[in-house]
Amino acid sequence: MWRKVFKIIGLYSRERSPAGITLLISVLLLAPVIKHPVHPVVLFTGILSAVLMLFLIRLSDDLCDLGIDRIAHPERLLCRDQFSVSILKRCRWLVTGPLIVMNTVAAAHPVAMLIFLLSALLICSLFFFIKPWLPTLVHTALLNAMLGIFPCYAGVLTTGHIGMAHLLMALFFWLGSFAHDLSHSLLDTAHTPPGQLKPLNRFNQKTLAMTSLALYLLSAGTGYLLFHYQAVSSVFLAALGICTLVIIRLECALIRHPTRNTARPFYVWGYLFFLLPVLADIAFHLFH
C-alpha cells in the first residue's frame, strides 16, 4: 500500500513539482533574508519545510482547479486517475503534522513559529476553499502572494520575528510572480478558438500587459528599497537593473501585440526577473 502511495507522490512530483526545481526555488526564496550563519539543523529544517510548503501549495491549487483541468489538461495524473486524487488529498494532512512539529522544535522561538505556521495554514486553507468563487484577478493575486510566506517564515525560524527586510522581500516576490502570471498567459484572443481561452484571456489583453509591466516596475522599486535598507548587496541591484531592462523591452512588444509568441519569453524571463537578482546576491555573500 505504502509503495503505491509513494509511487503516486513521485509521479505527481515529476509532473507538477520536479524535486530539483522545487529545491532550487526553495533555497532562493529563503536564503536572501538569512544573512547570519545558522545551525545546520535549522538550515536543513528551513529548506525541507520550504520544499514541502511549495509542494503543498502546488498540490492544493491543482486539486482546487480539478474541474477546469479535466477539460484543459486531461493528460495530467490528477485528471485521469481518481485514486491518485484521494491519495494526494490525504497526503496533505500527512505532511502538515510533521511540518509543524519539526519547525516548532528547530525554531529560535517555538511559540512564534507555531503561531506563524498555524496562521499560514489557516489562511491558505481558507483561500483554496473560497478560490472557485473569487474573481480571476483576485485569486491570481492571492495565489502569488503565497510566495511572500517564505521570507517571513525564514525570519520567524531564525530570529522569532518578521522585520522590514522580510516584508520587503515578500513584497518583491509577490509583485514579480504576479506580473509573471499575467504576462506569460496572454495571447491573440481574436484568432484563438474560444475553447482554448483561459480565464485571464477573457480580459483585455493589452490592459493586462500594461498591468504586468506596472507590477514588474513596482517589484523593481521594492528591490531598490531592499538595497536602500541594506538588506541586499549592490550585486542584487545590478542584476535587477539588467533584468528590468530586458523585461521592459519584452513588455513593449507584448503591449503592442499581445500574442502567444510575444508572451512566450515571459515563461522564463518572468521567473528570472526576481530569481536572478536573488541568486546573484547569494553568490556574492558566499564568495565575498
TrEMBL record:
UniProt superkingdom: Bacteria
Segments crossing the lipid bilayer: 17-34, 41-59, 111-130, 162-179, 208-229, 235-254, 266-287
Keywords: Membrane, Transmembrane, Transmembrane helix
Keyword Phosphoprotein: no
Record carries keyword Transmembrane: yes
Record protein name field: Prenyltransferase
Species of origin: Vibrio aerogenes CECT 7868
Classification of source organism: Bacteria, Pseudomonadati, Pseudomonadota, Gammaproteobacteria, Vibrionales
